[in-house]
Structures
1.
Amino acid sequence: MPAAFAVTSLHKRFRTRFGRTESVALDGVDLEVPRGEAFGLIGPNGAGKTTFIKCLLGISHPDSGRVELLGGRPEDPRSRARVGYLPERLALPGAWTPRAFLASVTRLKKLRPERSTLDGLLQRVGLSDAAERRIRGLSKGMRQRLGLAAALVGAPELLVLDEPTDGVDPLGRVEIRQLLTAELSRGATLFINSHLLSETERICTRIGILSRGRLVRSGPLEALTAVQQRWRVRFADGQPAAALVALGFEPAEGGTWEIAAPDAPALNHALDGARAAGALLVELERASRDLEDVLTEALAAGAA
Amino acid sequence: MTSIAVALDLLREAAARRWFLALGLALTGLLMLLLTSLRLEVVDGALAASRLFGQPLYHSIQAADVALRPVFLVASQIVFWGGLCFGVLSCADFAPALLSPGRIEHLLSLPVRRWELLAGTFLGVLALAVAGAVYASAGLVLVLGAKTGVWTGWPVVSAVLAAVAFGTVYAGMLAVTVWVRSAALSAAAGASLIVLGLLATHRVPILDLMGAGLGRALFAGVTAVVPPLGKLADAAGALASSSPLAPGGLLRLLAGTVAFAGALLAAATWRFERRDF
């Protein structure tokens, strides 16, 4: 599958006015996101996530490295015409109406601002009733939705969203998640930078963890959250706890048990032992962690 | 085309600002006041009597076109200097707003080249300046033309010259903003260019007064490149009042002014293309 974007050995340092290096924002990042995927970039504040996005879209110039955006260069307007971007803190012209703002974005994307299309976009983000209100009178969440509508102008192939649910209420987050799922179904690629791990976990299928300008983890969400060689088992009530502990099972959350097994024969050997001790197997799954655990572990490993 | 779209967006933004609404209302009010309060009696092409608010203005009988010359001269100076000062104050915020965090990132992510953004901003402000100056001068020509039968287009040409002068000043403001995003600094740059333009107008007598040294060399160097705005204002006044101009003088003046603005815009574009946001 062709890549939505590919970044190779990306370096970016911020300097003072006198040329001294102030901080290293990106320190040799390599990343390729296939088309049609939902990729989430996570990491602590100051990890370089927003700088990465800016380099990806040609808003900032990397010191070195290569960026390929939808098969072209980010400096090429033809590449950017196929991208929708929602910045972290989008500043909107307060005196304009949402419809006028979307019309302006449409014109700058060299498309014809048809009223029906603009109203359709406003409807998708739940702003139909605010189409003719001044933007300065909109709430933070409504402005965020308008920014999202602007990112959706022209049905872009790649959506780059920096904190898309920032300031949006919980119900609004559900709506935005549904909207992004619909975009994925359309074939768009999603690249999301969010500090809300639960949101990222729900939308994205691939994750990258950025720490101190380095991509310390990257891959499918399932693979990152899976705990290799550990299994979670639920037995029927009245299980022989002492026998299970003797067999190597460890008590876990919610009345479940976990066991380390390097391969299938070892796992079955342990389960046979448990059954022989009188335990009745109800549920078996690979033990996994949530994204917060993965992030914490990755950051700790990166700091070491 | 993209630059024009950016310029039109800037005009839409300007239309929503109180500064420009106030200017439009003030100019319209002034023209309406002249239309209703100024009474001019023209007999056989001569201005026989003139009254403003019922009070006589002139006692001598003059040819109407001759009598209107000082009026157009004063009006052109008001449009020129007043327009420059108003423009510096009211347009200082446009480029800083364009470069504000959260807005510039979004604009740069669109299929717009950086130079197109800058050119669009400049063109938008220039269009504003031309529109304001032409509205004021054309309104005055229409009011006086309707009352005296003297029709001339020169005050409008003179107003366009004032807009060109402001374009030069705004090029400096834009260049400063691209380096440091600040409306106050942008306005200060505009005001400094106006003062330097005035000093450049009188550079020879001022240089005569200065003793040799670094200060004199610096002054001579700076005022050699800054357009002499006073000369441009004089030319605008001469045009408006249908007075003779030195042959080729205005063209040379205009060429120098446009070249200066072009150099400032080139420097701004060079910086803008390299800047990170």
Note: The two ends of chain A are 35 Å apart (CA to CA).
2.
Amino acid sequence: MSARSRERWLGPAMLLPAVLYIVALVGVPLVLAALYSVGDVKVGSVGYRFVGLDNFRSVLESPAFRRALRNSFIFTIASQVLSLVGGNILALALKDAFPGRRFVRYLILLPWVAPVSIGSMGWKWILDSLYSIINWVLVWLHLVKPLDVPMWLGEPLLAMISVILVHVWHTLPFTTVILLAGWTSIPKDIPEAAQVDGAGYFRRLFEIQIPMMLPIINVAVLFGIIFTFTDMTVIYILTRGGPYDTTQVLPSLAFFTGILGSDLAEGAAISMFLLPLLVVVAWLMLRTARRAEVT
Amino acid sequence: MAVVETRKLTKTFRKGEVGAVRDVDLASHEGEFLVLLGPSGSGKTTLLRMIAGLETPTAGEILIGGAVVNDQTPRERRIAMVFQSYALYPHLSVFGNIVFPLKSQGVKKDERQKKADWAAGLLGIGHLMDRKPRELSGGERQRVALARAIVREPSLFLLDEPLSNLDAKLRASAREELEQFQKRIGTTTIYVTHDQVEAMAMGDRIVVMDKGRVRQIGTPAEVYDEPADTFVATFLGSPPMNLVTGADGITGFRPEHFLPARAVVSSESVAQRLTLSHEEYLGAERILYGTLADGLFAGAKVVSRIASTHASLFKKDATYDFAVERRHLKLFDAATGIRKT
Amino acid sequence: MRIGRRSHAALGRVVHVGVLGTFVVLLAFPFYWMLIATFKRSTDLYNLKNNPFIFNELPTLEHLRLLFDETLFLRWFWNTTFAGAMVVLITLLFAVPAAYALARLTGSWGEKLGIGIFLTYLVPPTLLFIPLSRVVALLGLQDSLWSIIVVYPSFTIPFSTWLLQGFFKAVPTELEDAAMVDGLTRFQAFWKLVIPISTSGILTVVIFTFTLVTQEFVYALTFISSASNQTVGVGVPIYLVRGDVYYWGSLMAACLIASLPIAVVYNLFLDRFIAGFTVGSVK
């Protein structure tokens, strides 16, 4: 083989191993998940029986599923909104240099860097029904009576708020870093020109700077949506989906049904509902990327 | 009453002195095109930004329309500025860019439309209103920046090297357009550049700056023919003025005044012989590089600039009779560089 | 009322400090809490009347002792470190050549492939874990650390390929061209020139991959069932409990120690971390 044609094969040869690995451990399981969801498979079962849409039907009829679906949307939308607003405010505060900025950045990134399960355990105790330090502070400030403290993980509404806040706590640093990159990419003279043109702080912010940031915000949002919608760690650790399934989301429901409940088929069916969202988000990401290339 | 005035304006930076401004006094004339000229780091952009309100002075005062404006934000000073990069808002159309200052002032929609059309018409960009900045050429972007600047009819224009982002060929025509434009609208303009040709061509008066200080303020003729010190003398003019050091100071004479003796008709002239080292033929003129052969300044490197209509042949390493009219000799103090005569 | 320039600036500073302070406290106080709780005596810890933020009794090392002597914590730590190292090696082995190929050797279909590879990163574990649990069982890897060593690269490889692609693209092609003119083959140029120059990018990938491993929860929870084979991320929340009782002191100690090394490491590479996040997203 000549050197020229050897080089032509080099590219694919260097790519192939990675592609094969991904196909084997992502592609194949994806297909399997689809097959399970239309089959009758339980842990330990040997054969495979095609059952069409039976699994989907029973899943859609179950109130637990409908509640999990609703919770997934609430969890995702609330987290993303908080993360975005909080991330932008924090990015703005970090944009310009100030003494000690490096140390502050370090502290701010801790929730993202520490393993999410570990951070959630810390929060589990901070939100504990008896020993919560938040409640201690509330009592100390005389805002609540000692016997009337909020049961952060024990009451449905508070539990949902708690898991949302802990998830935001974990993802905020990541969002902030991406947004900060966006803020610093705005050329310095554009807000100055807006100043000279007579725009006040808020007009500059909302009419000039944020619109320029939109591609970056897009990226942060889309990533955030995927990671939040498909995540179950915070919920699993804080509430196990409780109290009474009120914080159950699709991924955690899939886990309880498929792994702990050994009903692989039904679990797969539940997790298949993640696909439509993934496809939509991926398509939006590609569109944003393509538009960004054009500018 | 001057439109813009600064009194002992000073700006120091904590991290060293690049771009600092020291003790600048200047007063503009109504409607004039005032150029701030100097090398990079001379403080000219800092000075402009202080007038705009984008930097706060360390000391001194800035007055616009007779009132001290040190504490006013840029917004309150009602001036317009064109940045080196034009700073067009990339997500807004040309129309959106032009009306943005009007929106910020709360001007009503129909009024905004009228004024935008007027400004666009003045600059010949009415057909580009719907485009986005990224779809425009360099020259078009500059015109949009200017339209955005005049739409508010400000009392003062500030321009920060707006031609330096254009390619050389475009620069000349853009320069001419800018000059015409300013004459037509008659707004007092302060223009920053490091290009002395631009300054000479466009300025009614030039403020020559170096290391934060003003060296001279004058018309192009004044700063060129009667430079205040060696810095001004060598900064203006290309090739720069010849400076030779002697016993009683530094003597300066411009290359175009240092000519073959035959071409110098005046009786009041000083003869110097030139040993040629090399020559550049530039088409319309010829530049001769050499050293003075003898006399007080023997060995000094000098430059002569003659029109190509002067057809004599010069040979390398040969010595020729050259002369300078006495009235073209300038004497500068050896220590301070300030001109004595 | 017009606010003058100077008081405008002062107000701005107060707001700035206020905003920063709030965020820093909200984001970092759980770690402060872990730190204190680790050393607080149980009698102090569980006494509701005591101020939780300070030491009301003398600090103790009891929780740490319990953690190290009577739990599998150290074992989990070792498991995670070992798995992390293995996964990093595997990832580099597959991702480095793939990233180079994408950056240099392929045409337009290469770009589509690159995007495709990146998109697989978005396929979540919570969709794949059910079929993967069967695959793992089929391979006989259930309840073994090797199950995650084999599975983790399925997401670390796409992510690392995407990161490295950006780094390799930034290396000027003239270098390899010069080398090939001098007689090296393309692969030799890659091996001897591009890789050594890209140590910064490769180091970033190593750090990120290790972080992804330590962060992962779902696969470890699903594939590994016995405590002694578990990772730190799953062991601490799940197994540091006796019956229904959480030993909070030791638990907080475990959390603190589990967060610490990573925090130290990434502090050394803080700027690299941030650059890594943004290298692909801001073009």
Note: The CA atoms of residues 38 and 243 of chain B lie 20 Å apart.
